[in-house]
Amino acid sequence: RGARVSAHADAEARTRAVTDLVTPLLVEAGAGSGKTTLLVTRILALVAAGVPVHHVAAITFTRKAAGELRERVLAQLDATLRGVTPSYPVPWDASDGTVRARFATALAELDRMYLGTIHGFCARLLRERPVEAGLDPAFEELDEPGALADRRAWWADFLATRTRAADPRLRALHAAGLDVALLGDAFAARVAQGDADFPAPWHDAPPVT
Q1: Which is nearest to 200 in space by CA: 174, 177, 169?
Q2: Partners of 59 in the beta sheet?
Q3: Helix, strand, coil percent content, the chain, rounded in steps of 5
Q4: 60 forms bridges with which residues in the sheet?
Q5: What pLDDT band is residue 63 in, cutting at 50, 70 and 90?
Q6: The model's pTM
Q7: Sequence-ordered list of residues with C-beta below 8 angstroms from that of 128, at least 6 positions apart, any chain
Q8: Could you give the 3-state DSSP secondary structure of residue 116?
Q9: Which of 43, 80, 87, 182 has the CA that lies 20 to 30 A from 49?
Q10: Buried-exposed string 56-95: b where 16+ CB fall within 10 A, e elsewhere
Q11: Contact present, 150 and 140 (Cβ < 8 Å)
């Protein structure tokens, strides 16, 4: 019969994750192991330590996850201020007047804390510095379906324009037996990796047999 594993086998690691607020940490764990609870506790620990809410950012993969995280942070702040003690250890003293004042301020200014996707975070930075970024301040973010639809539309428009112009490059590709439509995938890869270098030296067309 196997040995029973303590529920607190990783207690030391969990404690460090919410008390060591300076060192970058990587937490790997399975679903339902308490990663979100740990993240919420770390966020509140930062607030309790005096970090202003607008200096706190938590990046998620999806907007749904961001919304759930925001709700958890809000609920924990509210519960702590109402004197509700969490069922797990926390690294702050909820009876400390300074901590309570910091939590009250964080609750009132929660909208200044960034809890969202990486795309949203980058968009927020760009909107704060549109001139330096060379962007229209009214730019809009595209979700993945929208970006895919735009890429397909751009590629179709490019092919149509080049075809109407009788572009000799298209004729050369057709003469080499290449289906130009297949280059759409290469175009999509180029758009998705705009900072990468794709050297494409010229090669003569293969002989036609």
Answers
A1: 169
A2: 116
A3: 55, 5, 40
A4: 117
A5: confident
A6: 0.66
A7: none
A8: strand
A9: 87
A10: bebbbeeeebbeebbebbbebbeebeeeeeeeeeebbebe
A11: no
